[in-house]
Specification:
Elements lengths: L1 H14 L3 H21 L2 H4 L5 H4 L2 H13 L1 H9 L1 H7 L4 H21 L2 H10 L4 H26 L5 H17 L3 H8 L4 H9 L2 H9 L5 H27 L1
Helix pairs in contact: 1-8, 2-5, 5-10, 5-11, 6-10, 8-10, 8-15, 10-11, 10-14, 10-15, 12-13
Length: 244
């Protein structure tokens, strides 16, 4: 646990040691504002809620999270510091968790900085704050799943561009499987039960349920278990490399 915390502190501190972190936060807040007020037509709807803000999160994370996660291990491989890390008294699992929780905490900070939107909607009307809290929690869980996928893929290459592109493609599959176009495209080739199963894997479908205020334990378990599986694979990749 101490090793995990040490890596967590080092990684989180490292984010704010470069301008990249601040650029990421500014872009995240800027895009969130554009999607909410322009694309989501926040004022034109005349409804006091944050649905226009949250409904675009699966797509917002689709591009921003891979940009954040691509450096987690690819940079270590490129600079050669991964060999040094593997010689330290740190298990691959501890290293993976430390880096993951640091990236997740950084994402949480960026998400928390959107609190003026919450204040604004309470000033303009009487929203259901329980739904908003559930949506923030769901968004954070979904971001964790994105990060776990990106971390695992980053561990497979030393090229950050490749890590970004592959992560984006994999995450895109988890988003579009639940959309009508995605389901219709595979319905002609697969049995209905398989199609429904693939649709249930969609980040968009799972998150929309949470956005309605339905904090189903199945959705929570889905995001947590999915992140856990990818992090386990991430640790396994490093363990195999360490044993060679």
């Amino acid at each position: 646990m101490n090793n995990t915390l040490a890596i967590f502190r080092r990684e989180l501190k490292g984010y704010f040691a470069t301008p990249v972190a601040y650029v990421f936060i500014v872009i995240f807040l800027l895009l969130a504002g554009i999607f909410t007020f322009y694309t989501g037509r926040f004022y034109e709807r005349g409804i006091a809620d944050l649905e226009p803000f949250f409904m675009f999160h699966p797509w917002l994370y689709l591009f921003l999270i891979p940009a954040l996660s691509m450096r987690l291990w690819a940079e270590e491989r490129k600079t050669g510091t991964i060999e040094l890390l593997m010689t330290l008294p740190v298990t691959p699992g501890q290293a993976v968790l430390g880096k993951f929780f640091a990236a997740w905490a950084f994402t949480s900070i960026a998400l928390a900085l959107t609190f003026p939107l919450w204040i604004t909607v309470n000033y303009l009307g009487d929203p259901d704050n329980g739904v908003i809290v559930a949506s923030y929690l769901g968004s954070l869980l979904m971001a964790g799943a994105y990060l776990a996928i990106g971390s695992c893929i980053s561990a497979m290459t030393k090229n950050q561009v490749i890590a970004f592109v592959v992560t984006l493609v994999v995450c895109l599959m988890f988003v579009v499987t639940g959309l009508f176009v995605g389901v219709a495209a595979i319905r002609d080739f697969l049995p209905e039960p398989v199609t429904q199963f693939l649709a249930s894997l969609s980040f968009d479908n799972r998150f929309r349920d949470i956005m309605r205020g339905v904090l189903d334990i199945r959705d929570i378990v889905y995001f947590v278990s999915l992140a856990g599986c990818w992090l386990f694979a991430n640790a396994l990749i490093l363990d195999i490399e360490k044993s060679q």
